Structures are given as C-alpha cells and as structure tokens.
Amino acid sequence: MSLFARGADPVGRTDTPIRVTVDGEPVAGIAGQTVAGILLASGRLSWRTTRFGAPRGVFCGIGSCFDCVLTVNGVPDVRACRRRAADGDEIRTQTRQEKS
User: Fold this and answer.
1) What tens digit of pLDDT does each residue of 11-45 get?
2) In whole angstroms, what separates CA 29 from the centre of its chain?
3) Residue 37 backbone dihedrals phi, psi, to 5 degrees
4) Is the dihedral of CA 86, 89, 93, 99 positive or negative?
5) Which of 43, 95, 97, 100 is 20 to 30 Å from 77 at the Cα level?
6) How far is residue 80's CA from residue 15's CA, in Å, rounded to a whole number?
C-alpha cells in the first residue's frame, strides 16, 4: 500500500505502511514517521493529561519539553516527537499520576 500511485509521487517515494496500537486501537502509519506524527495524522491532538486533567500532546516537537510523553512497548516517558514508530509498537497514553 502506498500513499501515491507508483510513479505519481513527484519525489519518487515508495512509502511502507506500518501499524501500531494506541490504547489497544490499531492506527496506521508510514515507516519513518515519529510516534507523534502518526498520532497527529490519525487526528489525535493530545494523548496525555496533567495532574489537573489538562490535555497535552506535541508542544515543542524537538524533544526539549516532555509534554508528548507516553508509554511505548512498556517503557514509560518516551517522547513521541523523538521516537520513530516501528511496525507493531504498543503505545499507551499516560497521566502524571500513573505512567503505565
């Protein structure tokens, strides 16, 4: 599966689809995308809450802050903007009180 018909992409990309799960729900992405990129492309603007319940997602987008953290394959506090997604990744959202 490709986003473009073969030969139609002006830069010649041949995208490889991947699938991750987010809180048990399958989400499609493209090899090379960050976890944040996949989540944003799927329509999610936030995936973490503060201890006061405020939504958080990508803020800086370069790994300087920690607003986009989540749990990937059982590892908590992974910055979604820095982590390239891999086919089969199991992603869970987190709150400030509970990291997993």
Assistant:
1) 666 789 999 999 999 999 999 999 999 999 999 99
2) 9
3) -60, -40
4) negative
5) 43
6) 21
